[in-house]
Amino acid sequence: MSEDDLPTPVEIIAAHDQLEEAYDLKYTGFLKAAPKSKLRRNVIKPASEYDDPYYRAAVLLFEIQSVHVFNDANKRTAWTVTMEYLNRNGIDPVFGQDRQTVEKIVRRAGLFSTDELAHWLKTGEIDTAKLPES
Question: Least buried of 68, 76, 94, 108, by fewest C-beta within 10 Å?
Fold first, then answer.
């Protein structure tokens, strides 16, 4: 499987840089050394194991936030990169939840499997009962 259509570590970092500027983040920069290597190994490589763009997007969404290379905005970066990836592939997801619930799903992506996230990105449906009450 190819990494050709996946974002590069440089593109992921650029998306994060734009978020830092747009949100005037208090904590900027990287939390971990060698962020490009970590993104390549822990995000791009696992995503490239799938052919389906929804599965690739699901891996991007979960792994960018879980590898946690940035001091702040890891989840926002994951969401931005995931949506840009889908849009580049001609996919404009429609979600069956309100904006607040979508944001909660993104923040709690680790509660869901790759299968569940891919299904959500494709159909807009996910088991929101897994989300904690707040």
Answer: 94
Task: Flag whether 124 is in a domain.
Answer: yes
Q: In total, how many domains does the chain have?
A: 1
Count CB neighbours of 131 within 10 A: 16
- The one-letter code for the residue type at 9 is P
Residue 28 has a CB neighbour count (10 Å cut-off) of 14
CATH of the domain at 23: 1.20.120.1870
- For residue 35, count other CB atoms closer than 10 A to its CB: 18
**Please, are residues 12 and 36 in contact by the beta-carbon 8 Å criterion?**
no
Digit-by-digit pLDDT tens for the chain (134 residues) are 567 899 999 999 999 999 999 999 989 989 878 899 999 999 999 999 999 999 999 999 999 999 999 999 999 999 999 999 999 999 999 999 999 999 999 999 999 999 999 999 999 999 999 999 86
pTM of the model: 0.94
Runs of H (alpha helix) within 1-134? 9-23, 35-39, 45-48, 53-67, 74-88, 99-107, 114-123
Residue 48: CB atoms within 10 Å: 17
